[in-house]
Specification:
This protein is of the alpha/beta class. It is built from 14 helices and 10 strands. Helix 7 links the parallel strand 6 and strand 7. The termini are far apart.
Length: 458
C-alpha cells in the first residue's frame, strides 16, 4: 500500500522558449515561499541538455549555476526536482542508454539534487524499430526504464521523490490512443506505485479539472495523479499572457491528487498573480472565490507598476488584467467592454444614443493606460508586456475611430480608413493572411472563410 507522502505544491519551469534567468528563479523562490508553496520543477524545454541533447552532461559553469539553485531551494526548504526528457530519441532496448541516464543523474546527485522526474511528453508515440527488440509496448519500455532508474536513484537518495510524465498526459490524448492501445492501463499495472504520474486534466490546457475526472484517472493509473497545470501557460500563443487567478478547479480536487504544480507564463515577471492565487487556493477553506483572490493579488502586484509619470490606478490595472485573464475567458470588466462594443456594432448608429459616448470613454481610458505603461520603472515588466499591450492599444484606437466616425454620420463609401492602420503594415504578413483562410467556430471546428479576393493577387 502506498504510504502518505507530502503534497507537492509549486511551479514548473517547463515551457518552450527562453528559460528563466538565475536571478528570476531566485525571485521565484521568494514568491513561492510567500505563497506557501514547496516545490520547484526544473524542466525548461529549451535547456538543450535537459531534452534535445540529454546525453551530454552540464559544463562546469552550467553545473555550478544549477548547484546554486539547489542550495537556494534547500535554504528556503523548497523541493528542487530535476527533470530529464530523453524521449525524443532514447533507444529503450540499448543498455548503454540506461548507463547514460545514470551518468546524467549522477551529476545532479553530486550537486545536491534529491528528487528527479523522467518526462516522456511531446514525443513520437511509437517505438522505433531499433527499440522493439523486446516485443514490448511503448508504455512497457518506459516503465521498465523508470522502475530501474528509481531503484538506482533510491540506493543513493532513499527519500527521493520520483516523478513521471506519460506520453498521453491528458484525457483527449488518451481517448485518441496516443502512445498505443492500453498505454495508461499498462502504466498503472507496470509502473512502480512509488512513482508520481503527471496529468494535465481533460485537455493540455484544461478550462476545468473536476474531482470526478481525477477519480476516473486514479482508477486507471492506480494512484493519485500529480497535476501539471497549464492553465497559465502561454508558450503556444505569443500574442497573449495570462495573469488571471487559479480557477476552474474545486477545493475538493486537493484531496484527489498528490500535488498541484503550475507551468505558467514563459515571461517570469507576469506570473505573480497566478502564483499568489495558487497559494490562496491551496489554503482556502470552504468555497473558492477566484475573483476575490485575483483582486487581492492584483493589489499586491500593483506597486510593481510604478512609472516615471502619473501613478497607475489600481482600477486601470485590474481592467488590463481582465483583458489577459485566462485562456478560455476574459475577466468581467473586459468581457463587459467587449459586449458593449459588439452591441453597438450590431446596430444602426442612429440607435446608439448616449451609450456610444460612454463606451468610447471606456475604450479611450484603456487605450491611454496602455500608453502610460511605456513609462514603467520596472523595465523587464514593461518589455514582457509591451508587444501584447501595444497590440491591444492599436485595436482600441482603430475601433474607437470607427465608432467616432459612424456616430458622426455613418461610413463614407468604401468604409472607414485609418491613417495609422494601413493595409500591408497593420494586421499584415503571411501569418495574418493564413489566419483569414479558416474560421474557427465556438465549438473549435474549423471551416473555410467566405471567399474574398486577395488584394495582393494580380
Amino acid at each position: 500500500m502506498q504510504t502518505q507522502r507530502e503534497f507537492l505544491a509549486g511551479v514548473i519551469e517547463g515551457f518552450y522558449g527562453q528559460p528563466w534567468s538565475p536571478r528570476e528563479r531566485l525571485e521565484l523562490f521568494d514568491w513561492m515561499t510567500e505563497s506557501g508553496l514547496n516545490t520547484y520543477l526544473y524542466a525548461p524545454k529549451d535547456d538543450l541538455k535537459q531534452r534535445a541533447i540529454w546525453r551530454e552532461p552540464y559544463s562546469m559553469s552550467e553545473a555550478e549555476s544549477l548547484g546554486e539553485l539547489i542550495r537556494a531551494c534547500r535554504r528556503l526548504r523548497l523541493h528542487f526536482v530535476y527533470a530529464l526528457s530523453p524521449g525524443l530519441d532514447i533507444e529503450y532496448g540499448n543498455p548503454s542508454e540506461f548507463e547514460c541516464l545514470k551518468r546524467r543523474l549522477e551529476q545532479m546527485l553530486g550537486l545536491g539534487c534529491g528528487n528527479i522526474a523522467l518526462l516522456f511528453d511531446d514525443i513520437p508515440d511509437g517505438l522505433a524499430l531499433e527499440n522493439g527488440g523486446r516485443g514490448e509496448s511503448l508504455a512497457s519500455a518506459q516503465c521498465r526504464v523508470a522502475n530501474a532508474l528509481l531503484l538506482w536513484f533510491r540506493d543513493r537518495c532513499p527519500e527521493a521523490r520520483f516523478l513521471f510524465c506519460p506520453t498521453p498526459y491528458c484525457g483527449r490524448m488518451a481517448e485518441r490512443k496516443l502512445g498505443g492501445e492500453e498505454y495508461l492501463s499498462t502504466l498503472g499495472r507496470e509502473l512502480s506505485p512509488e512513482i508520481d504520474v503527471f496529468w494535465t486534466g481533460p485537455e493540455i490546457v484544461s478550462e476545468q479539472i473536476t474531482a470526478a475526472h481525477v477519480r476516473s484517472i486514479q482508477a486507471v493509473l492506480r494512484r493519485k495523479p500529480l497535476i501539471w497545470d497549464n492553465l497559465h501557460a502561454n508558450d503556444y500563443d505569443g500574442r497573449r499572457f495570462f495573469c488571471g487567478p487559479y480557477a476552474g478547479r474545486p477545493p475538493e480536487l486537493r484531496d484527489e491528487v498528490s500535488g498541484l504544480l503550475i507551468n505558467p507564463n514563459s515571461e517570469f515577471v507576469l506570473n505573480y498573480v497566478p502564483i499568489q492565487t495558487l497559494g490562496e487556493f491551496l489554503r482556502c477553506e470552504g468555497s473558492w472565490d477566484s475573483r476575490k483572490a485575483y483582486l487581492s493579488a492584483m493589489r499586491k502586484w500593483w506597486p510593481c507598476f510604478a512609472t516615471v509619470g502619473q501613478p497607475v490606478k489600481l482600477e486601470d490595472l485590474v481592467l488590463l488584467g481582465d483583458c489577459f485573464y485566462l485562456p478560455h475567458a476574459e475577466g468581467s470588466e473586459a468581457k463587459a467592454l467587449y459586449e458593449h462594443i459588439r452591441y453597438l456594432l450590431d446596430r444602426n448608429p442612429a440607435e446608439w444614443g448616449v451609450q456610444a459616448g460612454l463606451v468610447r470613454q471606456q475604450m479611450v481610458r484603456l487605450r491611454d493606460f496602455c500608453v502610460q505603461l511605456t513609462g514603467l520603472c520596472h523595465r523587464p515588466l514593461f518589455y514582457a508586456l509591451s508587444r501584447r499591450v501595444w497590440e491591444l492599444r492599436e485595436e482600441l484606437d482603430l475601433l474607437e475611430g470607427f465608432l467616432r466616425r459612424a456616430s458622426q454620420g455613418g461610413m463614407p463609401n468604401g468604409g472607414y480608413h485609418s491613417d495609422f492602420h494601413l493595409s500591408g503594415t497593420y494586421r499584415g504578413g503571411l501569418v495574418a493572411r493564413l489566419q483569414q483562410l479558416l474560421v474557427q467556430e465556438p465549438d473549435g471546428a474549423l471551416n473555410l472563410a467566405r471567399a474574398r479576393p486577395d488584394p495582393r493577387a494580380s
